[in-house]
Write a structure and sequence with these properties.
With 283 residues, the chain is an alpha/beta fold. It folds into 2 domains: 164 residues, Nucleotidyltransferase, domain 5, CATH 3.30.420; 103 residues, no CATH class. It contains 11 helices and 10 strands. The strands form 2 sheets. It has a 5-stranded mixed β-sheet with strand order 4-3-2-1-5, with helices on both faces. A 5-stranded mixed β-sheet has the order 7-6-9-10-8.
């Protein structure tokens, strides 16, 4: 694994690389890091050198090379797990972390893009008051000129090779290999009627966009099959039924009175379902 650092960060962790190493053969094992201050607090941005996929962590307590390496990997693992990408971390990042080499950042385009991301991160922290996880999510959805105005998250996922994808059902799903059909039935119906009276929407094959797949994996819908909410909480009844048809299994999610459940309960699963539905069918 290669960690490319700026001179300023090198001084903090007491390591000043003398050379700029060539790209790692595994793009998931090549990262660049820079330090910045927001609200008089030190932060460190860790950016994938090829895709610009980034995480942000606090700089406090990181005083040497070993601590920086440990914290950087922990932060990356936690963020990718929260984003539904834990399999990607274990398959594509972790195996190369046994040996970590430090390097200078030799690509001015990468450093320039990181400075752009830092400017946005500062605004989100200082003016928006956002948590670092939310800051990173926004950074990874930012169009960047180095990516031809694509966003880092999409570029990061596009690095998944056929070899890695074949090793994990989660990665096959990310790359669109197993999802065959999405069905959604939703709306409001009065008591005495059935949900079948509501319209059904179906997407198959190429109709399923990368954004729809991204919403499903980000909010972990493959692990949220079941029924949620209280059918008797409202009249008329709000109803959502999502069916994900994969090559080897089908996942069905039903939510009764989603808006009321969001307001009255603290169920994180319903929040994830709500967020995904907003992107999938309420666009």
């Amino acid at each position: 694994m290669i960690l490319r650092i700026t001179q300023k960060l090198g001084k903090k962790i007491k390591v000043i690389p003398s050379e700029c190493l060539p790209p790692d053969k595994n793009p998931f094992a090549d990262w660049s890091a820079h330090i910045f201050t927001a609200e008089r607090v030190q932060h460190i941005i860790l950016t994938n050198t090829q895709s610009l996929f980034s995480v942000v962590m606090y700089g406090r307590g990181i005083a040497d090379q070993a601590k920086f390496t440990e914290q950087a990997l922990n932060c990356l693992h936690e963020f990718m797990t929260a984003e539904g990408l834990e399999s990607l971390y274990h398959l594509c990042v972790l195996p190369d972390t046994t040996t970590v080499l430090y390097s200078r950042i030799g690509n001015r385009h990468v450093l320039g893009s990181m400075n752009d991301l830092i400017s946005q991160a500062k605004m989100d922290i200082v003016e928006g008051g956002r948590e670092l996880y939310d800051v990173a999510v926004r950074l990874n959805e930012t169009p960047l000129s180095m990516l031809d105005y694509g966003h880092p998250r999409k570029a990061f996922l596009s690095m998944v090779s056929e070899e890695f994808a074949a090793a994990s059902s989660d990665l096959r799903f990310i790359t669109g290999k197993t999802l065959e059909q999405i069905e959604y039935r939703g709306g409001m119906f009065e008591r005495g009627k059935t949900p079948e009276s509501l319209p059904l929407q179906v997407w198959r094959g190429a109709e399923i966009t990368a954004g729809m797949r991204d919403a499903i994996i980000r909010d972990g819908l493959l692990n949220l099959g079941g029924t949620y909410g209280n059918k008797w909480a409202g009249d008329p009844i709000q109803y959502d039924h999502l069916k994900l048809v994969l090559t080897d299994k089908t996942v069905e999610i039903t939510v009764f009175n989603r808006a009321i459940a969001l307001f009255l309960t603290n169920d994180e699963r319903i929040r994830h379902i709500h967020r995904a539905l907003c992107k999938l069918v309420e666009r």
